[in-house]
Design goal:
This protein is an alpha/beta fold. Helix content is about 40%, strand content about 15%.
C-alpha cells in the first residue's frame, strides 16, 4: 500500500552565461502542503509581500522574505517535511549543436525526475511533478510514460508518476512552493558558480547567498552527497552519464 502522494516541484537556474546550470527539486508529501503553505502565507504577510518572492528579486532589507523563505525551507528539511535536491550540470561541456540547449535541459529534467523523484519516492507514493513552466519544461508531459517505464525497470517503481504538469510560478496553485524552491536554489547556484568574483554582483546578494549557504552547513557544492541522503542531495552530473 502506498503512502500519501508526493508533490515534486522543480525549476532551473543559470541556464545561460555561467558555468553550471542548476535544476532543483522540492519534494513534500501532500499531507504537509496545507501546513507549509499556511506558513509561507504568514511570512508573506509579515514581510508585506504582494508579488513573487524570487531570488532574482531580492533587495537589501532587514525583513527580507528571501531570507525567511530560505530559513523555513531549511527547517522543513530538518523536520523531514520537505526534501531539496540540486542537480548541477556543466553546460559548456554539452554538445548543444546536436539538439540545442533547450532540449539538453529537458533531458536533464528527465534525469532529475527519474533518479531523484522516482528513485526516492516512486516505490511507496504516487508522484505529482510540477515544473515551473517555460521553454525547457513545456514538453515534459510527453515523458510521463517513458519515465514510468524507466522507473519500473530501474527502481521497481510501477506507475510512479501520476502527472507532470508545468505550472506558472506567479499565478498557479503551485506558485508558493515554486518560489520557495527558487530562493534557495538561486542562492546556492550563485555560490556554485562563484558569482561573487565579478564586479557587478550586489554586495547584499553576496551576503544573503552566503547566509543561505551557511544555513545548510556550508556544503561543498562541487561534491556529490551520498545517494542515500534524500533530505538534501547535491548531484553534479557529467555529460554522457546514465544510470
Amino acid at each position: 500500500m502506498r503512502t500519501p502522494a508526493v508533490m515534486y516541484f522543480c525549476d532551473e537556474a543559470s541556464q545561460r552565461g555561467e558555468a553550471y546550470l542548476c535544476l532543483g527539486g522540492l519534494a513534500l508529501e501532500l499531507d504537509h502542503a496545507i501546513e507549509m503553505e499556511e506558513k509561507i502565507l504568514s511570512i508573506r504577510s509579515e514581510c508585506g509581500v504582494v508579488g513573487e518572492v524570487k531570488w532574482s528579486k531580492a533587495k537589501s532589507r532587514r525583513d527580507s522574505p528571501q531570507r525567511r523563505y530560505a530559513a523555513f525551507l531549511r527547517e522543513a528539511c530538518e523536520r523531514r517535511q520537505a526534501h531539496l535536491h540540486l542537480l548541477f550540470a556543466p553546460m559548456e561541456r554539452y554538445r548543444h549543436a546536436l539538439s540545442g540547449p533547450i532540449d539538453t535541459v529537458s533531458k536533464l529534467f528527465y534525469q532529475l525526475i527519474l533518479h531523484r523523484a522516482i528513485r526516492y519516492y516512486g516505490c511507496n507514493s504516487r508522484i505529482h511533478v510540477r515544473p515551473d513552466n517555460g521553454e525547457c519544461t513545456e514538453g515534459l508531459s510527453r515523458f510521463l510514460c517513458p519515465l514510468n517505464k524507466a522507473g519500473d525497470e530501474t527502481y521497481g517503481a510501477r506507475n510512479a508518476l501520476a502527472k507532470i504538469e508545468p505550472s506558472c510560478s506567479a499565478t498557479s496553485a503551485s506558485r508558493h512552493f515554486l518560489q520557495l524552491l527558487d530562493v534557495s536554489m538561486g542562492a546556492l547556484t550563485a555560490i556554485r558558480n562563484e558569482r561573487f568574483s565579478g564586479q557587478n554582483f550586489p554586495s547584499f546578494k553576496a551576503e544573503l547567498a552566503t547566509e543561505i549557504w551557511e544555513m545548510w552547513g556550508r556544503p561543498d557544492l562541487s561534491r556529490n552527497t551520498p545517494i542515500g541522503e534524500s533530505a538534501f542531495n547535491i548531484w553534479n552530473i557529467r555529460p554522457g552519464w546514465s544510470g
